[in-house]
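Give me structure tokens for this 605-residue protein.
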Amino acid sequence: LRPLQHVQPSILVGCPPAPVAPAPPPAPATSRLSELPLPKAQIPQYAPWLNGPASNPASLATQLVDVPISLLQLEFSTSEAHLKQIWRLERHPKGSRAASVELHNSTWAFLSKRQLARGVSSVGDPLRLQCFASKVLAGRPVRLSVVGGSVSFGTTFTTSRSKALFHWKVYQWINATFPGRLHEHYCGAVAASGPSYMEHCLHWHVPDNADLVLVEYAVNFDPGSDDVASFERMIRKLLRMRNQPAIILVNTMELMAPTAHSLHFSGNKQWLDGYSEGAPSQEDMSFEYRAPSEDSITQIAQYYGIPSLSLRSAIFRELKGFPLVSSLFPLKQVFHDRHHPGAWGHSLMAQMVVHTLKNAISDVATNGDHDHPQCDLLVSEGLKLGTMEFFGLGKPLFSVSPEAPIGSCSKGEEVMQHVRASKGFAYRVEGTDAKMKPGLVGMAAGDWVQLCVDISRLSESASFVVILGHLISYEHMGKVRISCLNECECSPEELDAHVQGGKFSVFKAKTIALKRARVPAKVSIRLSPRTARGRGATETPDGTGNRNAMGGNCSCVLHLLILPASGSGEHKFKILSLMTAQKEGSLRYGHQTGFNVRPMHARVS
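Here you go.
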């Protein structure tokens, strides 16, 4: 197989290449995924000369290690036969939930070239994808990350680590097409949450060095909310990441009929999150093309030059079964319900993504731009973002301002950045591995801590919320009194971290409603870094204004005091995270769930 930069045009029209001396077979290599044998019969159009006597037909994946991929191999990598093979699912016991929910059938149709073309709602600026292509062609490992809601999280599958999910299938394709490197996968999706949560907590869920970010939120905008503006601000943050990753917006379909009141289709289900029995009802088929959420996402994609893919645009007519259109995609087999694709639907979404990646890689390879000069410039500009706050993004399209009036998201040691003063509270890391719970801990009645909240961008009398993540448990825990100081007001309340019954210690999110108040300027207090990290018990007046120990704005202070009363007989209180936003919406659930499901490390199997 000849390297991409040496492939002649004659190859692309099916003519055999000129004879070349057979290269010695490469040393056997093991893919991080299962080896995927590709028999000659699956590539008959290339068989007479692609599988020459010097090649090893046992495994194309093995052959590609240490051998530059050809344009023909790249084209074959997105063929229906190849994708079905690398995306096949393991067999599950008949009648089990896994067998029903993760149903997979090798006879399912994939998207045609016409449907793939229809599914591109925004071509976008090609540079970031070309830079991604340059990385994989140069043999570099890449990091794939995804953010989204329950579709990406896999709520309707047996596990959030299901191999039926579209982003995992994209990762499988990257591994199968460019094996021999430690590519990484990060799932930052949070079920039952939208961009109003993710815009503040993006750094929890997307690694700083991500090379490709897939974004899926078409069915996660709350009606009547400001989620469009939140989505735009989140996209602006992704565009400003220092590594300047390629971004692809991946949109599933909104299938809620105007008269429908249930998320589920008609017909019985063996499992609540599985497939519905029977033919679709008239109500099932009355979904409409118009989808305000996706339409807004498409406008944002076009405005910022981001590729956007639409399952709706690709197969709407086929799902409807319009006259003269073959019904290749039965509604109740492609989708679990009116929001969530099944394994078949996830394969179609993944197919659109890998087709987009393949085209970008093919363009770079054909032009020989393996070391794209603009990629280094792109990253170097990204490194300047500390002094270029809104690097080349222009005025927002939907959002009133480039940033939300208020918004922060801190966990673990990050909470220390909010500490203004404390007595008895200290940062501790308790537990190990998945049960690790780092946080700010007070142990005795009378211990207290003051947390700074930046409200400098809020207008006077504006309302906002603080969501406090804390530990609750059946033992050791006490009660705190929460009050507000400085330029904010709230109703004092008590929060009990002791829960009777059971034996568990889990994260809990508490929402506190506040309002910005106008108060006379005061001389504030600020602690030294040593004191702020909980190792001291005194305040240090320094007359430097409303700043916290790490230099942030401290115009609003949340004061927590451990009370003598305790249901457990002990007084421990542990702060795990702190989030601020204009309104709660679905943030509390997103914050609570997001804390538990944030990617702690890369997934490679």
